[in-house]
Design brief:
Blueprint (H helix, E strand, L loop, with lengths): L1 E7 L2 E7 L5 E5 L6 E2 L10 E6 L2 E6 L6 E3 L2 E3 L1 E4 L4 E4 L2 E7 L27 H4 L9 E6 L5 E5 L4 E5 L6 E2 L10 E6 L2 E6 L6 E2 L2 E2 L4 E2 L5 E4 L2 E7 L2
């Protein structure tokens, strides 16, 4: 019996039996077959379909994307043990009676579009937040407060140990100001302040970069993930 196991972190939220189902939609709105309430999940986020014995998932032009085993996809085949990630939730696809593999086999995924780098905006443009059609949303762990969902409502959001920082870093060796997220007409620009900070998607950031959905920012023990509010 195939089923979906919905998890938030390590906690199991719900299970959905796929027996007899040929098409299942997943999203934030109640009309979906599987509803997951979250501000970073789209109204209709993805569709799972069965063709014979084969299951496939398709992203429904969601705001923050659909990830299969850590890679962003538009369409892909899904097999036993695969992990589908949408926003803060992950969905495990399993067939009861089969052991879970140690590592999922490689899939044919469509990679995410490369992140665009950009020069720092002029100060006059930073204040024009009303031109942004979508609002940014941060999910923060390892900072102060310990766990926080943060709507970007300010023109500049500073990350650092300083009491003046909006996202407070822990640790005596953390810089007073590590980086700043600037609101620009083109999107949210992550600008490094302290040399060696922050780590952006696994590499040290040396120049400003526009944030995309799913980007991960690390400053010491703090992990900040960027999404678009749906």
């Amino acid at each position: 019996m195939p089923k979906l196991i919905v998890r938030f972190g390590n906690a199991v939220i719900s299970e959905y039996d796929l027996t007899g189902k040929t098409s299942v939609t997943v999203g934030r709105k109640p009309e979906n077959d599987l509803q997951i309430e979250s501000p970073v999940i789209s109204g209709q986020h993805l569709r799972l379909t069965r063709e014979g014995e084969i299951y496939k998932i398709e992203d429904l032009n969601s705001t923050n994307g659909t990830y299969l085993n850590g890679r962003q996809i538009s369409k892909a085949e899904v097999n036993h043990g695969d992990i589908i990630e949408i926003g803060r939730h992950n969905i495990l696809f399993v067939v009861e009676g089969k052991p879970l593999p140690e590592a999922p086999a490689p899939r044919k995924e469509v990679p995410a579009e490369p992140v665009k780098s950009a020069a720092a905006p002029e100060p006059a443009k930073i204040a024009q937040t009303q031109k942004l059609e979508r609002k940014g949303y941060l999910i923060i762990t390892g900072a102060s407060p310990e766990t926080n969902d943060y709507d970007i409502a300010l023109a500049n959001v500073y990350i650092g140990k300083s009491p003046n920082a909006h996202i407070r870093l822990k640790g005596i060796f953390s810089p007073d100001m590590a980086a700043v997220i600037k609101t620009t007409p083109d999107g949210y620009l992550l600008v490094p302040i302290e040399s060696g900070y922050p780590e952006y998607n696994g590499t040290k950031l040396t120049q400003p970069v526009l944030l995309n959905a799913g980007d991960e920012i690390k400053c010491g023990s703090a992990v900040i993930k960027f999404f678009w509010r749906t």
